[in-house]
Amino acid sequence: MKRLHIVAVMALVAGLLLFPAVGSAGVNGNTPQPGQMVKVFIAFDRQPGPNEQAIVRGYGGAIKYTYHLVPAIAASVPQAAIDGLLRNPRVVRVEPVIEVRLVDYAGELANTWGVNRIDAGAVHGNGNNGAGVKVAVIDTGVDYGHPELAANYAGGYDFVNGDADPRDDNGHGTHVAGTIAAQRDGVGVVGVAPGARVYALKVLDAGGGGSYENVIAALEWAVDHGIQVTNNSYGSSGDPGTLVKDAFDNAYAAGILNVAAAGNSGNPPGKGDNVIYPARYASVIAVAATSSNDSRASFSSTGPDVELAAPGVNISSTKLGGDYTEMSGTSMASPHIAGAAALAIASGVTGVANVRSRLQSSVDDLGPAGRDVYYGFGLVDAARAASSANGTPTVSITSPASGATFSSGASITFNGTANDAEDGDLTASLLWESNIDGVIGSGGSFSRVLGDGNHTITARSTDSGGKTGTASVSITVGTPSGGATIASVPSIGYATYGGKNQNNHMQITTALVDNLGNPVANASVSISVALGGAPGYYSGTSTTGTNGQAIFKIANASSGTYITTVTSVNAAGLTWDSVTPTNTFTK
Fold first, then answer.
1. What is the DSSP letter of 573?
2. Fold of the CATH domain 486-586
3. Rounded to 5 degrees, what angle do the CA atoms 398, 581, 121 make?
4. Catalytic (active site) residue 578
5. Residue 566 · residue 552 · CB < 8 Å
6. What's the pLDDT tens digit per position in 383-432?
7. Does domain 14-97 match CATH 3.30.70.80?
8. Contact residues for 353 (Cβ-Cβ < 8 A; gap 6+)
9. What is the DSSP string of 323-364?
10. What residue ranges do the domains of the chain occupy?
């Protein structure tokens, strides 16, 4: 029997309990002594320099980092010095340094079903492997000598040992890196973006532990070195404080898309809001885990901050020493999204808000319609995210060559090619109705998002009586010319938050994109909400942000089933297609 071993997500940390305002227990439950050294972030009212360093040292502090991504210093100081630091007029706050842990399970060797499930192979077949996109793995390091990773490794830094050799001594970071960018060489496993440039930023030690002081330093390094995507498969259930949030926010503002594991703190029924940090931050994409049957992994954290879902159960990837191994967890789901983001960037999508919106609008919607607390917007589809056309050509096979008719129960499979023999069998994602009655094509059709290029799709049908038929169709997909003209609402999401029961209030989020797949900002969106089938429960108008999302908040929302209708969209230069996506939510 396969056994999964959970690795606990550490929320505790001595620092959380150091200050009188939040408690008196210290490390291991002991009360800190006046001379005991404690790790802290010291935030200043200006960018810290020699004068601010002198203040810290004057209180007996040992400085580890002087940041420029946030105006702060990370240092170890005597417990008794904290009050004195807080009285200094240049010191804004002193925050404890929180520990973090990697987020994974362990398992047995299988295959790269996850990469196949999100249709990354179709993107590779169209000539896009994420070449040149800079992805940083903030983790335990990377085995950069692994045959699957050596060609794509581009450097990094070890913040645990303070040197430029971020070699993995745990294995977690190597596994994550393989899911992102293992080479497509016909051997072992393949990554979602096998041409991406992988950077290893080691913030966790051989035991999988670390602290946020190293995380901020890694984010700063990423900004300084032009990293485009970071993967963060670690976390804490405890809030690490304002400075850590500011660091992720500032990295996002600097052009880095931060992707993180939502956490393995979920429960089988999917109850509660248990997404960990840093995935909880608005500047970070929180990724939930799914199994091979598209169901939520029972361990996957849930809550309104979940943004996307990806395969995270029995994921095979690279292992220390040149081998392969299987692991499970949201740690394994997150790099699928980081790789898909690299493919989207390589396809020409620019700007973190646009890449993020493309990922959100290029999903298979799982669970409740629209955004939900289990899967977010849905399971990522790399082929849609990396399609410059981002259209949905619909193909109907009108009749087999023989013109035969088929009785109920005839089965149909589809095979297709997209400029690449390895794209091969598309049966799993191109399923027509299993019960056909009448001539093929008398109502049956299937749809699939196709990237730019020439595609040929062939339907082959055989029923129990031995009747067979074949038909093919060819499609050429290209980027629409003349710019965007149409605005559409691809999804409507719901989330609850706040109040006595932590779910008294409700938030409705509508996404707005143009016909090129780009988010539409500064547009006016109006909605009407029905409760229990009765219209008129709520109506409102909101303006979309840079990510193309309009947010509506309903305080003390009643229990029941909600359906939202988009009543109008006003976007400069665009015509709304007047379509409201299917949606429902039960509170």
1. T
2. Immunoglobulin-like (2.60.40)
3. 60
4. no
5. no
6. 889 875 433 333 334 333 334 443 333 344 444 433 332 233 333 233 33
7. yes
8. 519, 545, 546, 547, 548
9. EEEEEESHHHHHHHHHHHHHHHHHTT--SHHHHHHHHHHSEE
10. 14-97, 118-385, 394-477, 486-586
* Among 104, 139, 158, 514, the one annotated catalytic: 139
> What residue type is 491 in one-letter code?
S
Say what the pTM is.
0.66
Same fold flag, 14-97 and 118-385: no
CB atoms within 10 A of CB 264: 27
Active-site annotation holds for 331: yes
Give the Cα separation of 565 and 549 in Å (integer). 15
Q: Which residue has the tokens 């015509």?
A: 575
Catalytic-labelled residue, pool 172, 175, 336, 455: 172
Report phi then psi at 361, rounded to 5: -90, 0
Q: Fold for 118-385, please state it.
A: Rossmann fold (3.40.50)
Pairing, β 315-319 against β 323-328: antiparallel
Note if 139 is an active site residue.
Answer: yes
| pLDDT at residue number 416 | 40
How many residues appear in the chain? 587
Q: Which of 331, 347, 491, 542 does the annotation list as catalytic?
A: 331
- Measured from the Cβ of residue 438, the count of other Cβ atoms closer than 10 Å reads 13
Positive or negative, the CA dihedral 97, 101, 102, 103 is negative
